[in-house]
Specification:
Layout (H helix, E strand, L loop, with lengths): L16 H55 L6 E5 L7 E5 L2 E5 L4 E2 L9 E2 L3 E4 L3 H6 L22 E2 L5 E10 L4 E10 L25 E10 L3
Parallel strand pairs: 4-5
Antiparallel strand pairs: 1-2, 2-3, 3-6, 6-7, 8-9, 9-10
């Protein structure tokens, strides 16, 4: 007769359904925790980028204005802030350099009724001393074909980064011939900020905080010439 060999029985056992469920649950919890950690790291990274952008912008604007004041010769006029029509836009003039600005409004092109934005909030151009002193201020809410405010001299520059706003832009002279320059910039929509204007503007805590940052800088300068 034919003999059929059979495999020896194995003492090894597979995972039970309960063990698989427990392992899957533990793995899911670990993945959720890792996801939360990664999201937190991403938010911190995004917050750091936005804060660095705003601080750099505030320093650059302060340095730009300070250098213009320092290099302005004794015969050049310092005029401002003037506010011809449209009234919300104001102007500082240092010799032939003009700064047209608006406080508290957000720079951008993707405007909506819930979050209005305008094309420019701090525009520097050089129309010449006579034209600069005479005004009027530019309308920063409109653009010409070159993407500049209507009436601006060619070669002008927007000094505030996208989706940001000026919270402070104040330049005042003292009796000793010095100038105090105060500049504040905030990045983010209005609902993320404690206020739209002022040196104490800060970001609200809570959701979306990584998309908000604010900075303020004050310095005193004098003319070199």
């Amino acid at each position: 007769s034919m003999k059929i060999d059979t495999l020896p029985e194995s003492n090894e056992k597979g995972f039970t359904i309960l063990e698989l469920l427990i392992a899957t649950t533990v793995l899911s919890v670990i993945l959720v925790m890792v996801s939360f950690v990664m999201v937190g790291i991403g938010n911190i990274y995004q917050k750091g980028i936005n804060q660095a952008r705003v601080q750099t912008s505030t320093r650059n604007i302060t340095r730009e204005v300070s250098e213009q004041l320092q290099l302005m010769n004794r015969s050049s006029a310092f005029v401002g802030p003037s506010s011809p029509a449209p009234g919300r836009f104001k102007t500082f003039c240092f010799g032939d350099v003009r700064y047209t600005y608006v406080i508290g409004e957000q720079l951008g092109t993707d405007s909506s009724p819930e979050n209005p934005k305008i094309p420019h909030v701090l525009w520097r151009d050089t129309p010449g001393a006579a034209a600069c002193a005479a005004g009027p201020a530019l309308d920063l809410s409109t653009n010409n074909a070159n993407g500049e405010p209507i009436g601006s001299e060619r070669g002008g520059t927007e000094l505030v980064p996208a989706n940001s706003r000026l919270t402070v832009f104040d330049i005042s002279s003292t009796l000793s011939g010095l100038y105090t320059v105060n500049v504040g910039v905030a990045y983010g929509d209005a609902d993320l900020l404690t206020a739209r204007t002022g040196p104490t503007v800060r970001c609200n805590s809570g959701a979306g905080n990584q998309f908000c940052s604010a900075a303020f800088l004050s310095t005193v300068v004098g003319r070199r010439l």
